[in-house]
Design a protein that fits this description.
Oligomer: single chain
Structural class: mainly alpha
Number of helices: 27
Largest sheet: 3 strands, antiparallel
Number of strands: 5
Shape: globular
């Protein structure tokens, strides 16, 4: 899909799209051949030792949320092999800059345990609905909704701060990938209070770990159980929503070889897996004496054996031998280790980290790595990074909105912690990819065509103008041309090591346009709106 240009853009901006194939929605044509030619015939960690500076800058673009102004100097003296190894197996205690951590520490989601936070918001909702008059009910519910939105906002702010400033960039990047894969919509029910904890405790700790552990953590989290209605799934009142998405979207894939009968059987397996917000220490629900030993309560998660279907079940052609909650684990083991899951998950990783059409040989290698390592995500990524196909893709993948906004912020302001993430979150909203905002469980699309339409490009140019003017440091009171023209010191992107590293690969159209810039602000706009920056 070739993007079109809004008519009101500055004429110099348009110059970037008027030379041959160098349109905004296509990768810079001058880069494709040199990168492909540079690919070695053998793979392995040593393959990166002879990489030139533009290739290394593009590598950092790909394994992080965007290269900073330091370019390859951001490696800090590490060799690229050592850097990749550290990113694949990161220090769990890697620290954020003090100012960023202080912002996170001040959040309610950091200071209050999720059990207490959820109970408080649930009690407030009930109290609001019990107010004696309509006006009082409306006012109380409005205040409750505002506070719920604030909790979601805190989760989004925490994600952005980590994405911009964490030294463990690959973990933060894969956290977004898995949050998108195991997607929940914060706007449903009370998920706004749960989504931050879902990211923090179910997804982020396993983002580079074993897929089976990640899968199990999402199955036991109240955000997922509420979002896909499994909290209402009980023997005699079967709800298949979660079972279907667990197979189609989370493990086997739509062509994974399962049947409607398998969906029904998995739904029966998941009966009784739900959520409890009873205060800690309160008596468990009434359960038959023979079933009491099967009752499980861990935080907000609850397995209620009274609601479970105890009849025999068969999944993917084989009987399940365990019982109770152990039956769920046996089913998840089977799904996680199915060859279809290895193919489906690794193909999605390739779409995320390589591009729209990953070669069949690459997909086969990744699936083999997944199966050989029992779903070790870091091992799969290591396999990917050491392939010629990955290296050939550097600089060619069109950035979706989250990548574009975060890359722009890391380049323009990665050396100083922003006082607010509000501009970034506002831009993601305008670009139709807000965090936790996908209403359907399939997650945001990963292909270029979904994000390269004319409306998207028009908004990106406005964001490029704001970033180039330094608006992220001091957000304008209103987003208009007069405010944008107010006195700010724009970041000096033309002088950055990153821009110098990429310069040899700029297309003639980009060089021509940048040479005509009459100010640093205009140069920044043109560069941030260029094909070279739209792709990473």
């Amino acid at each position: 899909m070739t993007p079109t240009y809004p008519l009101h853009l500055h004429r110099r901006t348009l110059l970037l799209g008027l030379a041959g194939c160098a349109v905004f929605g296509a990768p810079p044509a001058t880069q494709a051949a040199p990168l492909a030619a540079a690919v070695p015939n053998t793979t392995g960690p040593g393959a990166w030792s002879a990489a030139d500076e533009p290739t290394l800058a593009r590598l950092l673009d790909r394994v992080t949320w965007g290269c900073t102004a330091q370019g390859t100097q951001g490696l800090g003296g590490w060799g690229i092999s050592a850097y990749l190894a550290a990113q694949l197996r990161p220090d769990a205690n890697a620290a954020l800059p003090r100012e960023a951590q202080a912002q996170i520490d001040a959040m309610a989601i950091s200071r209050t345990p999720i059990e207490a936070l959820a109970a408080d918001m649930d009690a407030r909702n009930r109290a609001a609905k019990a107010r004696p008059t309509e006006d009082e009910r409306k006012a109380a519910l409005k205040a409750w909704q505002q506070d719920m939105r604030a909790l979601q906002q805190e989760a989004a702010e925490r994600f952005v701060l980590r994405a911009l400033y964490s030294p463990t960039q690959l973990r933060e990047k894969m956290t977004w990938f898995w949050m998108n894969h195991f997607s929940v919509f914060a706007g449903k029910g009370n998920l706004r209070v749960l989504v931050g904890d879902y990211e923090e405790r179910a997804v982020r700790p396993h983002a580079l770990g074993r897929f089976r552990d990640l899968l199990g953590a999402t199955v036991r989290h109240p955000a997922m159980l509420r979002y896909l209605d499994n909290a209402r799934n009980a023997a005699g009142r079967i709800n298949e929503n979660y079972a279907r998405e667990l197979m189609e979207l989370h493990t086997l894939g739509v062509d994974g070889g399962y049947s409607q009968q398998d969906v029904q059987e998995l739904a029966r397996v998941l009966t009784g897996v739900g959520v409890s917000q009873r205060p800690p220490g309160e008596e468990p629900p009434r359960i038959k004496p023979a079933l009491r030993r099967h009752y499980v309560r861990q935080g907000l998660f609850e397995f209620n054996p009274q609601r479970h279907d105890w009849d025999p079940k068969t999944l993917l052609g084989q009987p399940l031998r365990a019982e109770g909650l152990a039956e769920v684990d046996e089913a998840l083991d089977r799904l996680a280790r199915a060859p279809a899951t290895a193919r489906f998950i690794t193909r999605k990783i390739a779409l995320f980290l390589v591009g729209d059409n990953p070669p069949p040989a690459l997909l086969q290698a990744l699936a083999r790595s997944f199966e050989r390592t029992d779903g070790d995500i870091a091992a799969v990524l290591e396999t990917l990074f050491n392939t010629p196909d990955f290296r050939a893709s550097l600089g060619q993948r069109f950035r979706d909105p989250v990548h574009y906004v975060l890359a722009g912020l890391r380049l323009a302001h990665g050396d100083a912690v922003l006082p607010s993430t509000e501009p970034a979150l506002g831009w993601l909203q305008r670009l139709a990819e807000p965090l936790y905002g996908r209403a359907t469980p399939d997650g945001y699309p990963l292909d270029a065509a979904s994000w390269s339409g004319s409306g998207q490009m028009s908004t990106r140019f406005e964001i490029a103008r704001a970033l180039g003017a330094g608006a992220a440091v001091s957000p304008p009171a209103r987003d208009d041309a007069a405010t944008m023209a107010s006195a700010r010191t724009p970041p000096a992107l033309a002088q950055t090591a990153y821009a110098r590293a990429l310069e040899p690969g700029w297309s003639p159209a980009t060089r021509h346009a940048l040479a005509q810039a009459t100010s640093p602000r205009e140069w920044n706009l043109l560069f941030l709106a260029s094909p070279e920056f739209m792709h990473g």
